[in-house]
Amino acid sequence: MNKSGKYGLGLLLALLLTSCTLPLAPTVPSPSPTLTATVTPPPTETPTPLPTPTPEPTPTPTLIPPPDPTELPALAEAGAARLRAAVGDAELVCFRHEDLTNDGLPEWLALLHQPEANRMSAFVLQGDNTITTLLDAKPDPGKPYYGLGQYPTCEIEIRDINADGRTEIAIFGHAERNLTLLHLYAWNANDFRLVGAFQGDAGVFFEDRDGDLAEEILEGHRDTGAPQLAWRVIFTWDGLTYGWTWDRWDWYFLERPHSYPTHRADYAVISFYLALNDRDLPGAYALLADSARAAQPYEAWATGFARTLRVDVSGIQRVAEASDENQARVNAMVTAWDNDDGLVTGRLWEVTWETVLTEAGWRLVAGTTNLLDTWDARYWK
Questions:
Q1: Cα-based distances in Å from 300 to 189, 305, 311, 371
Q2: Any idea where the domains of the chain sit in the sequence?
Q3: Distance of CA 238 to CAs 48, 215, 233, 235, 243, Å?
């Protein structure tokens, strides 16, 4: 019996019980004495009037006038002197006077280089003469410690980076072996919290890759087997912290035209999708094996990518049990964005390629695809 049937049965039982009243024994009336009662009405209560609330005056916001440009040098020198008194003989690299705590009042952000330690450090000087050290991330055991960076550089961004309504402080630094560092801070009502620390030898930068207006952080790592390639690890803000969400392959150099590495089967698959993303369709078609090109002429093959706007490739994995010296099976995760009649659609594909070794390098013979997800891109640029 379904739920509505149960409710119907209950209603039916209620109707039966109210309509089938059992007869009662007849009652013989008995004479009642006449009673005389004097009822005293209760005293009339006079309500106490409630106090009339007094409206509170609306506070008038205090307008902070912009500083007089002629006073800025003296203001900066006074702030620098207070910092030097607190931090010693460190070299002052740069100074920023901006609202770092979202209270409408500016603070001083100072970036200093310590020559004896050969590393950068940062301090915030607040209006109440409080000097706060921005703590940096300590390296893993056995790895060198660079602080905020090894070289005296001034690369700072102060803005709402992750679209959470708060101001973040992004400090970029550099160290040996082309290492880029990023430390990200935010005020949490009591102090400046280290939101995240990132580093990579192929750059670290911001990018809104998924079109939600909140920028992701990308770490770049070079591949020793193919120096022209970079592996990008993407970290996304979840409201509390940055977490690793996905990755993609990219070019390390921005040179054109690219030389496509094909000395390994996985590199050939990566090169194929990077060529598609560059709109180098002839270059991608050339990475197909002779049998694949014979089965589909270039014009018909290229038409299939007429609406493709962007392609990312990640999750590259060579299947060892299905590979040998002359042929290999390679799995990949491919994300493609297509223009579907004016709307941008994202699709996530699971792709498996059969590849073969030729005199010109590894080539793609045939592939199978499995569509995993589809979504509409909210914004596109």
A1: 60, 10, 20, 22
A2: 263-381
A3: 55, 12, 16, 10, 7
The pair of structure tokens assigned to 12 is 């039916």
Which CATH code fits 263-381? Answer: 3.10.450.50
Predicted local distance difference test score (pLDDT) of residue 23: 37
**How far is residue 153's CA from residue 286's CA, in Å, rounded to a whole number?**
44
Q: Which residues lie closer than 8 Å to 133 by C-beta, 6 or more apart?
A: 121, 122, 123
Residue type, 347: R
Q: What is the residue-wise DSSP string for 233-279?
A: EEEEE-SSSEEEEEEEEEESS--SSPPPP-SSHHHHHHHHHHHHHTT
Whether the bond between 257 and the residue before it is cis, its omega within 30 degrees of 0, is: yes
CA gap 108, 99 in Å, rounded: 8
* 308-365 per-position pLDDT tens digit: 999 999 999 999 999 999 999 999 999 999 999 889 999 999 999 999 999 999 999 9
Query: E strands of 163-319, at which residues?
Result: 168-175, 179-187, 192-200, 204-207, 216-223, 226-237, 242-251, 308-319
228-259: pLDDT as tens digits: 999 999 999 998 899 999 999 999 988 778 89
The residues, ordered by sequence, that sit 6+ positions from 146 with a Cβ below 8 Å of its Cβ are: 119, 139, 173, 175, 179, 181
Residue 227 in this model has a pLDDT that exceeds 50: yes
**C-beta pairs of 177-182 under 8 Å, 24+ apart in sequence:** 177/201, 178/202, 179/146, 180/204, 180/220, 181/146, 181/148, 181/149, 182/217
Q: Is 82 helix (H, G, I), strand (E, B) or coil?
A: helix
pLDDT tens digits for range 164-219:
999 999 999 999 999 999 999 999 988 999 999 999 999 999 998 777 778 999 99
Gap between the Cα atoms of 107 and 186, Å rounded:
13
